Structure formats: C-alpha cells, structure tokens
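Entry 14. Two folds queued back to back today. First construct below, sequence then structure tokens.
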Amino acid sequence: MCGIAGFVSSEAISTDRSTAVERMCQAMIHRGPDDAGLSDLNGATLGMRRLAIFDPANGHQPMQSDDGRFTLVFNGAVYNFRELRRELEACGHTFRTQCDTEVLLAAYVEWRDACLPRLRGMFAFAVWDSVERTLFAARDAFGIKPLYYTRLPSGGVIFASELRALFASGQVSREIDPASIGEYLAWFTVPAPRTMFSGVANLPPGHWLRCDQLGRVQTGAWWHFPAAHGNVAGTYEDFVDGLRAQLEDSIRAHRLADVPVGAFLSGGMDSSAVVGLMARSGATQLKTFSLVFDEAAYSEKSSAQIVANAFGTEHHAELITGERVAADLPKIIAAFDQPTGDGINTYYASQTARQGGVTVALSGLGGDELFGGYAAFTDIPKLNRWLPRWRMLPHAVRNSILTRLQSRPDTRSKKLADFLAHARDLHELASLRRRVLPEGTRLDLLAPEARRHAERLGPHHPMLEDFAFELAGADAFQTVSAWEMRTYMADVLLRDSDVFSMAHSLELRVPLVDRVLIEWLWPQQTAFKFDRRTLKRALADATRDIVPEAIRHRPKQGFTLPFPLWMRGALRPFLEETFSPASIATCPWLRADVVKSLWQQFITGNDNRAWSRVWTVAMLIQFCQQGQRT
C-alpha cells in the first residue's frame, strides 16, 4: 500500500517537476511511512511513499524494468502475483524480489494494458514509457484504490493518490467547483469523474488513462459487468457449494501478506463470515477489532464477542463515545480531502487495528451489495412495478399526492415523493436511491449560483445513461446490485475506507469486493442469491458450518454510530458553532437561513433518520472552513 504521485510534462523543467513530486509525496507520508522514492525521467517525474506489505526489505519504488524503458509506481496489492510470476517466468522474465510490484511491472512489460484483466487485487498504478514518452495509468475494477489527476494548461498531467497531494505540488489551484456543491448534497460525495475542485478529476473505477508526449490525455473503461452467462449452478445446493469455494478462494488471496493481518468484526453476518473463513483457512493468533458504544441500541458488542469466542481470536473492543468523537473531530476532518457524511466508524476501527498491532485488516464491506442486504433490493423493484399505474393517473391527481408527501415532515415521505416525481423506470429509481437530501430541500439550501448548476444537472445520478447502457439485459436484482456497487459503495464506502485507513497507515482489504468472486456470482440465478424473506440467506448458508447460529439468524443491524443521540448531546456545541452565521459564511454556495432552519428542525423534531442530512451539510461547511485555513 502506498501513495503515488507524478508530474508528466515536456514543458516543465526537471527540477520543477522533482520539487512538485517531492512535495506531493511529503503530503502522503501517512500512506507510506516505510519508504520513499523518486525518479526523474525524460519528460516525467514519478514518486511514491511505501507501506511495505510484501517482501518489506525489497520492493523499492519507483521500479524500473531491466532495459530501463518502463518505470512504475504502484498503490495497492496484487493478490495473484505468485501465479502471475510463474506465468511470466515461463515467458522469460526473471525476478529479484518476492513482492507484487516487480510482478506487476513485468506483467505490464509483457502484456501492456492487456495485463489489467489478469490482475486480482486492488490497485492504482502508473507506468512511464521512456521510448514512446507516454504515461499509462489504471485503477482497479471497483475503485478500491484512488487516483486523482489534473490536466495542465501547457500540456501534460499531474496525478496523485490524494487530492491534498495535488495541491501540495504548488501546480494545482484549490478552487471549489460550484456545481460540485449540489452534487455533494445529493450523493454524500461528488461522483467520479468529477471532484469538489475545478479542473481536478477522479479516474473512475475500472478505467485507464493515457497521456502522450504532446500532453494529450485520454481515458477509457477496461472493466464492465459481465455480459455473457458464466458457469451457472443448476441447483441451490450446487450454488451454495460454489459460493463457498469462491469465498474460501477470495479469503485465501486476501490473507496474503508478510506483515500481521487482522480483521474488522462488527458482529454482523458479513464480517463474521470473513473472520470465520479466515480462521478456517488457517489463520492463527488472529486479531479482531470492533467498536462498541454505551448506547445499547447501537452496540454490537455481544454479537462480536460471540464470533470472537467461536474462533478464538484476540479480540479488541474499542469504546467510542460522543465526547471522544467531539474531541477528535478536528483530526478526523483534517484526514479527508473531500467532505463526507460517512466514514467515522472506519476512522476509529482503523485506528484500533493499527494500535492493536496489525498492518493489514480485512473488512466485510460489500456483503450488502452482493447479497441484497439493503431494503432497496425489495423496495426498488416493487416501486418499479407500480410506476406504470402511477404515471397513468391524471396529472392533477399526481400533483396533489406529491404535494401531500412533500409537506410531511418525515424523510421517508419526501424520498417517496422524489421517486414518484422524477423516475420513469428501474434505472432512474436506482439512480435516485442514494439521494441524501430531498430534491426540494437540496435546491432550497443552494445559493443562486450553485442552484443554477444543480437545476441544469437535474436530480439523477450523472452516470445514469452510462450505467443503463452497461446494464442492458440485467434483471432487477442485478441492476440494484450494480448501482449500489457503482455509486454508494465506490464513491462513499470505498473512498472513505481508503482515506481513513490510510490516515492510520493501515492497509484495509475487502475480500467480498473481489473481481473473481463477483464475476462468478454475477450470472448466477437471482433466486439463489437473494431471498426477500431471509436477508443474505446465500451467504449464511454458504458459511453455516462456521458462523455461529446466533449470528446467522439475528436481525440485520447496520455498522453505524449513535449520531442522532450524539448530535443532540456531546456533538451539539460543535454543530451550533458549525451552523453559526460566521461558519456558514465560509461556504457562500449555501443559503444561511435554510441551513439554520434545517438544523433547528432536527433539534426540535423526532425524525432520527434526518441526522445524516444535517451531518452532511455540517461536513460541507467544515470542509469549506478547512480550505480557508490551508
């Protein structure tokens, strides 16, 4: 795991490029405290910070091919590097180290961009070709590892693993894009390829980038959800057996490391399955980590302990209180370089794991998206079946119903109104599923300039047409699953997982978000993958001999913090200051009166579901304040 950076330009002089890349790497020490490197090449400078996982004594980057033509910087982990190494040795390649970086470089030398479908892992890497004087970069299929870049006015590109690194280069201005404000309020994030900043892009998951010697930048997709039918199980028993084999294979791959490996353990089905499979695969002296709370309704302490006892793990349960979060908020906010309304749980879980003695931790993230753990898997198809009847109603009747729904104080009614007002089919419903603020509230919050952009872009996800084209022929379950993976999982959950784990120099791995597993699972019968009567039945049945029965049969409980209670208690002073006129003024794209009203409605109301809307706005204001301080 690393932080990578680069400056490609035939116009900039070598010393200017090197200075900029050194600054970027310095800004990412937390991503790689073990090693640093920089290579100044003819037309490009590449740099990195390394968190050593495989062959810690070797694997220094940037790494160069034997003939000096190709130079690589790499962030992530290639889990099948030993298999690839044997294949490349048969092609005539020799190796000096036992690390995945050298194998990745040889794979690119041998197969160029055709190496991408061969890689099993999480990655963002860049390769400079000194003969053709071109840069090639790529990001893993699901966006587990990030890559940000900006085109230079004079031609060329600057890239890095973090936005803060780009700005540290001294070559990129930190100018907020007014259009991004409305997008953030809609989605908890600014969906790729855009970011919060003008002229700065986020390479989307499963995409590559090329920059040629004339400074021209081109991007394209290298991975899509499979179109062809794969090896489909004929019976549910065969499916469960096949799923178990795929899960075991993924856990085996994700356990590989030359440093201590542990696991997050919330006590839910997903993390329990991961820990159980780790233990069954031979992990000894396994360390597990969970967060617990004094608020009993939110704490999964007993469930996590049941799993830890079942597998004999060395379990660490970290108590998190509202007072502790309030005291730590300046550090937490400083850790992200784009605002987020989520991720604080990952911040503390990562801190606990790193302090507990591991450098790598596995997480159960992805189980809900693959096995239908969200209400959307039932609600969205049901609503889609009713849409034709709804649209047959007279316009006046529909308007009357929408007005009544929008006037209700509860979040659920307002969200239903948005579905009915703006969706015409399954994809548009799925597009709206992860909206944070109701459309009327979102537009009211925005000052005139930002509102104009929001009205121009509309209420739907910006990738609606692309996703609908890619998913042509998918059934309802596949459609919802893909939308969840492509949007909330990629742009919020995985991004926050990277940011907050790397803030503590921890490599966080997600074995359920595995390309090999997902490509096997994708064509399987929906009836096998999803049972609306028993959430995650498939995962529970595939691990029924290892996951305790009490966990397999317990109601689903999301891995979340007691924010509704804390925001009215320990976090209230922070929020009162955040929503003060002086603080709101630092974010001129918001209307102060509407922001204040949103906060007051939450404090005086009883809709606990509204906490995330209020917190999302608070984090935006804090982000704007942070920008003024840097």
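Second construct, same run, same settings:
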Amino acid sequence: MHSEDRTGRADDGRDGRFADRRAGDAPRTVIDGRYELLERIGSGGMGEVWKAHDRRLNRFVAVKGLLDRAAMAGGTQATAMQRARREAEAIAKIEHQNVVTVHDQVESDHQVWIVMKLLEARSLGDLLSRDGVLSVPRAANIALQVLQGLRAVHAASVVHRDVKPGNVLVRDDGLAILVDFGIATFEGADRVTRTGSVIGTPSYLAPELFAPASPGPTPASDLWALGVTLYEAVEGRVPFAGHEVWEVQESIRQTPDPALRYAGPLAPVVQGLLVTDPRQRLDAATAEAMLREVLDDPAAPNAGAAAATHPPTAVSTPNPSTPPTPPTPPTPGPRAPVRSPEPVPPSPAASGRRARHRRWQIVAAVVCVSLLAGAGWLVTRGGGDGGTDDRTGSARGQGEGPDGSGSQERWKDTHPTLEIGVKDDQPGLSKFDRKTRTYRGYDIDLAYAIAESMGYGKGEVAFTTVATDYRSTALKTKQVDLVIASYSITDDRKTAGPDGYSVDFAGPYYEASRGFLVREKSAKYTINDSSDLRDLGVEVCTARDSTYEKALPEQGFTMAKSQPNTYQDCLDRLLDPKSDVYAVASDDIILAGYAEANPGKVRRLENIRGAEGYGVAMRPKSPILKGEVCSALRTILAGRVWEDMYKENLSGLVGDKNPPGRPELTECEGY
C-alpha cells in the first residue's frame, strides 16, 4: 500500500497518504493524513477492512476499500472509481440504527475508502458457529432489524448484494446492524459477475441473478439472501448446499422448497422469501408485518432475545369455522382451537400490495395464533404443575370441578385445544406432509384416538414438531400438553432428563427393537452385521439425547464426534459420501421407514439386544391428564384400534402383517 525508501520513511507524495515508523514499531499506513491503519479486521474480494485511529477526532473507526484493484485493467479504473464514489456517497446518506454508520469517504492511490463506525459486536455468523441455531424469537428479532435496515438501504436506491450472517453484527443489547457495503451497488447497475468473478457469496445469491437476461441485483435479491440467512439461523445450515455457484444453482433447481424442521411460526416468512421467482417473492413490507406477527409485539421490534433452543417447526391447523381471537399478552388465557382464517385486511403500511402476498399473511396469522396464543414462544412459563392449571393460572385442587365443587374435572375443561408434540421426519410413525401441511403416521393416529377418548374432536388437536433433544423442554415450557414422538421410557428420563427436567409417562403403547442402518454400497468397508461396525470402529450416528447415545459406547461402538438433533440429520450424514458416518443407530421401525424412503441407498442390519418402549410423555404431577391418557390407552390396546393403526402405518415397513405383542401399561399402574 506504500513504497518505502532506505531511511524507513514512506510517502507517495500525491494524496497525503504516508506511513511512518516509530521507534520499535512497524510502519503504519495513514490515509489522507488522518486515518492510521492499526490492524486488519477483515478481507474479501473487494479489499480489506482495517481498524483505524482517527487522528483528528481521536476515535477508532473501521476503514474499508471498495475496489479490488488487482482485478481491474488500467482502462476500467476510471469508470470503477466513479462508480465507487457514487456508491460511497449513497451509502453515506443512509441513516438508520440497523445500518452501519458511514463517517467519511476518502480517495487515495486509485482506491475509494469508506470510513465507518467501529462496532464492538459479534457477527451473527459467530453466534451460529457457537450456538448452532437461534431460538425462533431471537431469530425473528434479528431478521426484523436487518429487514428494517434493508428497507432504508433500498430507499436510498442501493442494493447490498452480500446479506449473510457474517455481515450482520449483533451487540450485547440485542441491536442488529447490517454492515459491509463493500460490494453494494445501485439497483440494476451491474450483472452478477464482474471481470469473470462472482460478486457475492454463492450460498446467498438469488437464482434470478444467474439467468441470461438477469437485470442484475435488486432489492428482491437482497430479500432472498435474508431468507437464506433466516433459514440458517433457525435450521443450523444453509438451505441450498454447495460451495461453487453451479452447485448452489443445482441445489436450488433440485430442491426449491427446502425442509424446515425448527422454524415454527417463521416458516411462512422463510418460505415466502425463498420463492425462486422474484416477482412472487415476499416483499419487504409484508415480510416485516409477518415478523412482527411472530414476535407478537408490533410496537417493539427489538424485544425478545431468548436463549437458543430447538423450537417446534410446524403446526397442524384444524378447521372448524370461527376465527379465534388471540389473548392479549402478557397474561395468557386459555388457547382456542385454530380455525379456518378469514382474509386478513392489510395494514396501512401494506396497502396496495399484490394479492399473491396476502396468503403469506394468512398463513402466518394462523400459525402464530396456534403457537403464540399462550406466549409460549416468547416467554418461558415457569412454576410447578402440581394442582395449577398452566393455561389459566388458577390453582384449584386436583379433582375439584370448575366451580370448586367435588365433581371430577376433565382436562378439556381448562384446555380447549389439546397440544401434542410429535416428530415430523419418521415415515410410518410420524411424518409431516409439506404439501397438505398435515401429519400422518401411527403416532398421529394414536394421538387422535387418545384425544377422541378425552372428548376432543380433530379440530381441537394441534400438533407441534419436537426434535429428540427438545421434547422435555417443550413440556417444561408448557408449549405442549403431551409428547407422542417415539419417546422411549427410561428411568433417567423419569427422574431427570438431559436438561435436568423429569417427565412422566403413560404407556408403553409400542415396543420397538434396536438396530442399525448402513450404506448399501461402500467403497471403503464391507459391513454385513453390527459386529463389523464394532470391529472396524466406524462412526455411528444417533440423535442427541437418545437412549443410543449412552448405550452404544458401553457396547463398544464408536460414535460420531458430535450427534445431531434428529435421526433424519443422521440419515443425511449417512447418505453423504464424503461423511465419516457409516451407520445410523435407532429403533427398527424408524430405520425401516428410512430404508423404504431411500431404496437402493441404505439397508438395515439385524437387530441388536434391547427394546424401546414408547410412552406418551407429560409434565409430572398431572394426575387428571395422566388418568385420562391411561384410560384411553387401555381402550385402544384392548380392541382392534391398535391393530388397525399398526396395519395401516407400520406393517408394510417391517414386512410383518401381524403387530408385535401388546405391551403392558406398566406406566399406568394406579391410574
């Protein structure tokens, strides 16, 4: 950045930029006689970012060059300089709390520098590297702030072009700030490539940017990048795999609608932002309204930074007729069943939006009513469960009627909707159909049968997806009443689960064997049975906090270095030829479903010793609920309902028309 003579002093003699050498110090570059570059804090295709000292105002700032001079031929430098000047000037005009503040613009040595506020904050990328995922409220909060910043950017006719977790800084107080305008441009100014190189990060580039007749970057392409960022924040990975542009393009083409497991009420927002046609993509005003809906606080977009968890991902929406009225926070009342929604009138800010976007508002409203009505997403409702109704806050004694008399109280008297946590990725047991937005499987049929016995109609049952390591948390935070999700009954779960919270069980309603799933073909190993897995020491994957995580190492199996949240994640690793995972450990019925869904790719090994008794889980000290569930299970197991559910959902997977022996309800003794 400078030339140095033999005396140790450097001066280009043209623009006031020089470097000096203090005693014992390396030479430092000073731009415009004012900004002393202290240390490099980032670099990329458009140059370097430096922490600098502003000598005039005695403050620290960030300084970044807008041009990659090495990539420009001499004849294009003048044009590039002019373009960079215009961009820097435009960015400097943006004044918004969620956009980094630009202090100054400086030109030196055929480079345009922007001088910005130096922020003491961690990037969203750093947070995700540390925590894996964010909770739905925190992700929605950050996304809302970034979106507000983007709206200010777009209002200045600037397109950011590189929205991603690494370019979103999050302060300790929760303020999110969009940074790094080093490749920003005016709307429609450029194509996606310049001098043969891709401008932007491939994983976050909108698909329309690669079309032959692409108009170049637009606000819609920034919104796509925000959708990718939001997906990554709640799912723990980018939606479209690949490191190169062509790989990402192919991923988008093959899977334009990536699965959402933990997004919960954010799912409609993410799906709307990731619509491949930019004309159909969610616009900024609608996205903001939907994010506020998720946060359930239109006046406070900076609220709600909860600790990271694995929140539910989808909800079934029953459909009788009258739309419910959500309770007014912060005092949640009884939840009403979710109804078929009437059209939601647009807010003043959203007037004039195209009709195609109204469907996203409707979906968001429905999902949010069902999940947020009790403020379960935004607050952790504490307190004991003994004798206290967790929906109404009343403290009637167990066994008393609603009027305080001695008549027997029913669970439905105070819980008009039965909230049930289920899995969404287990064929045959519990699978979420994204087209119909409904759940199917043995566990789902069992849930409806239990609900019917308790007096609930199908329209009064709401399902929420719970990952393996989130099941007890969903109960503890009172987001669900029951969990029916291949939840194996173990003593440690009844005393203190992985998060220190104990659960109670009714059941078992099904007993599964233990087994392994391996690749059908492997160039490296020959695996015929489970002993080969042990002898070869290959990595075995299982869901975090499952019974296998502790049991298999004790039997001599080598476990993967880190276990994911779901068995589906394990299956994804197994199917990846670059992965070191060569087996998935789970229950035979779960593995049978995966094998049927992936013919020719995986196969099951013979079962190993041990069995998993599935139970219906609930919070401790809920005698009314447990009594009703146990009564329902006795009726279901005694008749043909249990056999019919098995034949309908599971017999084809395991290749056995006859169900296994009926389990004894050991967890229902005394009820």
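Quick look at the second one. Residues 1-24, 187-198, 298-406 have pLDDT under 50 and may be disordered. The radius of gyration is 29 Å.
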